[in-house]
Amino acid sequence: MSRDHVHSDQRSATAAGASLSSAETPFLELLARGASAEAYEQPALLARAEGRATEQIVALEQAKLLALRVRSELEGRRRREAELSALFETAHDLAGLRDLDAVLQAIVQRARSLLGTEVAYLSLNDPARGDTYMRVTEGSVAARFQQLRLGMGEGLGGLVAQTARPYVTDDYFKDDRFQHTLSIDAGVRDEGLVAILGVPLMLGHHVIGVLFAADRRARVFEREQIALLGSFAALAAAAIDTANLLTETRSALADLERANEIIRDRSGVIERASDVHDRLAQLVLHGGGVHDVAAAVSQVLAGAVEFTEVTATPAQALEASRAEGHAVRHADDWIAAVAAGGELLGALVLRGQPGLDPVDQRTLERAATVTSLLLLARRSAAEAEQRVRGELLDDLLDARDRDPRLLRERAARLDADLDATHVVLAARLDAAAADADQEAAARRRLWSAASHLAATRHGLAAARDGGTVLLLPLEPGDTATAVARRAARHLGTAVHEAVSVGASAPVEDLAARPDTVTAAYEESRRCLDALRLLGRSGDGAAAEDFGFLGLLLAGDRDIAGFVDRTIGRLVAYDERRGTDLLHTLDAYFACGMSPARTKDELHVHVNTVAQRLERVGRLLGADWQSPARVLEIQLALRLRRLSAPAQR
C-alpha cells in the first residue's frame, strides 16, 4: 500500500471520529437533562431534513443507539436504586415495628408505586376457616373486592396460597389455569382488574398470605418486577412474624404480670388465712366462745360476721350450705352452716359482701367448722347440766322432792326460776322410724334440741314417754299457744323432721306445789294426742285452741275460762249497760234461731230482736251463727247457768 493511501485512510478515520464525536453531543445533552426516549429521534430527523451527509446521519444513528443503551442502563440503575431504597425503608420500618397494619400498608403502597400498578393488595390465610382473606388494599375502590375471601385454590390468589409459587396473568378473565368462582370474579369485575401478579408470603415452608400488584388493563409483568414484589412479600412476612412474636411476648408478659398479681394476692390471702388460723387456734385454747370466733373472722375478712340461730337464718340458704358443705351466697350475704352430724346448730353469716374471694370463702367455712367444734365442746360440757335439768324436771313430774327451798336452790343453779309462771310442753316426732336404731337416734336428736332450747330459755327439759317434756317460763303478754307453736317450729328445724307440741295452761307456784307440773304434763299430752288425731302434724297448740273440746283436754276443766273466752263480751256488756243480750240469745236458740218466735217469747217487737242480735254479732264476731260457734256459744250459756248457783 502506498504512503498516500495510508495518509488518506488516516484522514478518513479522523474525519469519521470527528463526525461521531460531533454526533454524540446532542445525545449527551439529552442524557444530561433526562429526556424521553422519543426525543432521541430528533437529531437524526433534523440532519436528514437539513440534507446532511450520509456519514453524519449514520454517525447520529449509531450515537442514538449508544445513547439509548446508556439511558436504559441509567434508568435500570435508578430503578434498582429506588427499589433498594424502598426495600431499605421498609426494612427500617420493620425494625422499628410498632403498628403491623401501618407497616403492611407501607409495603403495599411502595409495591404499587415501584411496579407502577393501579392497585396493590395483600391477603392473609385463615387457618381456622381454611381460606384466605383481604387484609390491606391500596388503590382499591370496590367495597366487595376489599371484603373478598378466597378458598384454597380459588382465584389466582387461592392458587398462589395453595402452591406457594408466584403466579401472573395478563388477562384474568381469559386465564383458565385457576378456579373461577362467582364471588371472586364479581369482586375482581367490580374493581375492573385485568392483569394481576401474586407472590406468596412465606414463613419457613408455610404460606401465610399473598401480596398482589394489579392493573385495570392488559400488561406483561417482567421478571425483575416479580422478583421485586417477592422481596416485598418477604418483608411483609417478616413483619407479620415479628408482630406475632411481639404479640406473643406482650401476651406472655401480661400473663406473667397477672400471675405475679395472683401470687401477690394469694400471698396476702395465705397470710390472712394463716392469721385467722392462729387466731382461731388461740380462741380454742383459751376457751373462747362462738361470738369470739365471729369477731376474729370479722377482722380477717374486713366485714361483719355474726353467729345466728337456726330460726334466725334463711332456711333455704342454710339447708343448701349444710348439704353442699360450703358457704353459699344469699342476696348480699354469705351463709356458712354450723352443723354437727345431721343437726343444724346455726350459721356464720358474713354481711354485705356479695363478691367473696374463694380463699376468704374457705376461711368463713373453716370458721364455721371451728364454731361447730366449739358448740360440740360446749354441748359436751352442757350435757351434764342437761342431765341435771332433766333430773330436776323428773323430780317435779314425779313429785319426789317436796321441799320448796331445795327445789328453788337446784333451779337457781340452773338459771331457772320456779316462782315464775311456766308452761309445760309435750313434744314428739311425727314420722315413724324405719327401725329401732333410727328411732332411738331421732329421739336423741329431739332431746338434744329440746335441752338446748330449754337452756337458752331458762327452762328445763327431759326425755319422757317416747318424746320430750319441756318446762318453759311464760313471758308477759305471751300465751301457751304461742309458746307451743314456736317450740314446734324450732325443734322441727333443728332435727329436720316434723315435731308436734302440746302445751298446758299456764301454771304457777311450782316449788310449793310440785304436783302441779304432773297435772300440767298430762294436759299437754292430751293436747298433743288431739293434734295428732286432727292431722295437725308439726303444729303446736294448747287446750284453749280446741274450743269446747279444750274442756275435755284441760287438766283442771277451766269452765270459767271457757265461758269467758266464748261469751265474756256479752256478760260484760249486759253488766255495764243493764241490757239483756244473754237472755235474748237464750230465747233465740230455744226458739230454733227464729226471730219471729223469739219476739213472741220475749214479748217485744221483732225489730227489737233484730237490733239485739245485731249487737251480739258486733260483740262476738260476724261468724257467731256458724254451726261450730253456735255449739260453743250454747254450751257456754248452759255452763254459765249451771255454775251460777255456785257463784252466789
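The above is record 1. Record 2 follows with the same two-line structure.
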Amino acid sequence: MTSSRPGRDPRRGSGPRAVHEGADLAEALNRAAREARRQSNAVTAGVYLLDERHGDLRLVLAGGSAPSLFTLPGRMGLNMPSASVRAWRSGETTVLIDPNPADPEQEHVLPYPYVALSTPITSGDQRFGVLTVLRPETFGDYSHAERAALEDIGYQLAGDLTRLVKDGVSVRAGSMPVLVPPEDGVDTSGDTPGWGVPSVPGSAGTSMMYPLRRLAELLNRATTIDDVVAAAQYCVMSPLRARALVLASVSEGRLWVLGHSGDSSGIVRNLHGAGVDAHIPAAEALNGRPLFISKNPTANSDPLTASRIRSEAYLPLNGDGQFIDLALADGRHVVGVCCLSFSETQRFPPEERALLGMMAGLLGAAVERVELSAKQREVAQCLQRFLLPSRLPDLPRLSTTARYRPADVNSEVGGDWYDVIKLPGDRAVLVIGDVEGHAMESAAVMGQVRTAVASYATEGHRPAAVVDRTGRLLADLGTDLTATCCVISLDTLDGTAEVALAGHPPPLVWRPDGSTGVLDAPANVPLGVLTADVYQGREHTLESGSVLMLYTNGLIGLHSTDPEACARTLLGSGDGGCAPDLEKLADMIVAEFCAPQQRRDDAALLLALYEGAQGRDESRSASLHIQLRDLRGANKARRFVRDHLDSWGLDGMSDALELVVSEIVTNALIHAGSDVDVRLRAFEDHVRLEVRDSDSNPPLPSPLALAEEENAEAEHGRGMLIVEALAEEWNSSPNGQGKTVSLNLPITP
C-alpha cells in the first residue's frame, strides 16, 4: 500500500491495473485482520509492515470498533517495548498484558485497558511485519489455542503477501492506514474511490477518520504557523493527493499567505495581498461556503494547456472571532482560507467534502490560536524593546555592545535589563540587572528600577549609593518582587572602576595577557530587601585593552552549578595579546548559551572594551542618526563618512567606505522600517563601520540564481553582494533591540 489512498501506487501509475493490485493487497490484509478478530475474540486487529526507509513499523490496515480502533499507534520505533515490536524483533508470538503492573520494574507501555497479542508475518526469509490484536483486559490472557490460531493466520497472510510480491505488487506501508468497521452496515461512502477496502461497507468512511484524528492531535501541539502547515501537509495534502497547499489569513480587508507547500508558487502570487472583494476563488470562499472546482479537458483542448488543468478546493477557515473582523451571517468568523490544487481531475464526492469541511474547522481554530499567541508575544517583545535602551551611547575610549534574549517557554516578558550611561568628565556607568518573574509586573518594575538607577547615576552618586537608594525606592513601591543589579562606574582616562552589587553575579574581566578574573565586590542583598546594612562597593583598576562582561543568570544558569566558572571559561577562550571583537565575542557567548530550546529564562549580556588613553586629544570616532523615511539618508551617510575620513587623514579609504555605507543604510531603511544609526571609528590599523537598526533579521545577499520561493524570503537589496565583495569579513549581530551590521577595512600604508 503506497499511499494513504490504497490502490494508488505513484511509482506504478494510477490506472486500472494499479487500482486492482492495491485492492488485492487490501483484501488480503482485511481477510487476515477479520479472521484474527474472530479467532481471538478481539475488538481490534491491526497489520503493521516494516518501513525500511524510516526504520519503523507502520500501521497499514486496522479493523475493529471505536475507540479501540484508534488506540493502535500509527507507527512504532523498533526500540519501543510494545508487543508488536517484540514480536518483530524476536520472531515469536508475544503478549503484553496489565497496563498498570504491580511490579515497579515492569515498563508501563499500554495506556489503554487492552491486552495485546502480536505474531510476526514471516515466510521463509521474507519478513513483512506483524499482526496484532487487542481485547479488553477483563477477558483475561489469551489461551494457548488463541495464540496458535493467530500464528496460523500470520503464516497464511505471509504466504498471501509472498504471492503478491511475486506478481509484482508493491507490499509496503502508505502514509495513512486503511480502517475497517467491525461489521457490515449501510455504506454511505461506497462512491468514494481510493479509500478503504472496496468490498467492505463503511470502510472508506472509517478510513477517512484517521487523518482527521491525526490532524487534531498535531494541531493541538502546534505552536507556530510552520507547525500548522506541516500538519496540514501530512494530514490533508498527502491523503488527498493534492499537488499544492496554501494557508492564508484575513487581515485589514486582504488575504495574506501564512504558509504553503508543494507546487504552490502560482497560488501564492495570485493570493498574497489580494482584497477580500477580489474576483478570485479564494476570496469567494470567504463567504463561509467551500468552493470546489473540477476542470475536465475537452477533445479540442490544447494538449499543453490540458496538462496544466487541475481541480481546486477553497475551504474557509472559521474561528471564534477573537481578533478577526470578517464575520458571517450566522455569527461565525472567517480566519482565512485553505487552498488545495490537484494535478488530476477530482470529483469531490460528498464524503470527501465532509472530510475537508471538518479538517478546515480544525485548521481555522489552530490558525486563530497560533496567530493570537504570536500577536501577544509580539506585544510583549515590543514592550521589552521600549523598556531597554534604544541604542548604546558612543563613549571615548570605551566600546560597548549588548545582547538580550527573551525566554522561549512563554510569551511573557522578563525583567532583565542593561544600560550604559554617559557622564561628564570622561566617566561612564555600566549597569545590568534582573527583576524576578516573567510577567507584565516584572517588566513594569524593571522599567522603574532602570529609570531610578539611571537617575541616581546621572546625579553623580557613586555605585554603592546608587544601588542603596534604588533598593529603598523599590521597597517603597509596594511590590513583592525583588531585583538583582550590578553597577560599575568607570573613569575612561585612568581605568578606575568602582563596582557595587545588589545580590548579582560579579562582572568578569578579560585582560590583555589572555587571563580572566572577577571584579570582586561585596555581594550585598537584592534590591527591595529591607536591610539596616549599608551597601558596599569596591574599586579596581583596568588595564588598557581589558574587556568587561556583565551578565544575568538566565544566560548560563542552566549550564553549570558554577555559572561564574562557566562564564570565565568562555570569556577567556580567545588568545591573549589582541583585544577581541566585541560583536563576535557577544555572538559566540549567545550562541553557546542561548540555544532556543534552552531559554527558560530571559538573558542579558553587556560587554565593554576599555581602550585606554591613546595619546590623542580627541577620540577618532563619530556617529550619525538617520530618521525613518529620510529620503536623503544614504546621501547623508556617504557625506558623513567622507568628511570624517578626510579629517582623520584617511581620504584614500573614502570611495570604498562610502559605497559600503550607502548600500547598508539603504538596505536598513527599506527592510528594517526603523531609524538607523551609523558609527565610524578609526584605529591604528583599521577602520570600523557599524550600522544599527531595529530589525533582528540579518541582511541576506540575494543572488539572482536563487529559486523563486527562496528569493521571496530573502531581502532583495542586491547591494549586500557589493558589501560582501568589498569587505573581506562582515558581521550581523542581533542585540535584542534589532541588529548591528559591522565590518572592518584595513588601513593600507
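The longest helix spans residues 350-387.
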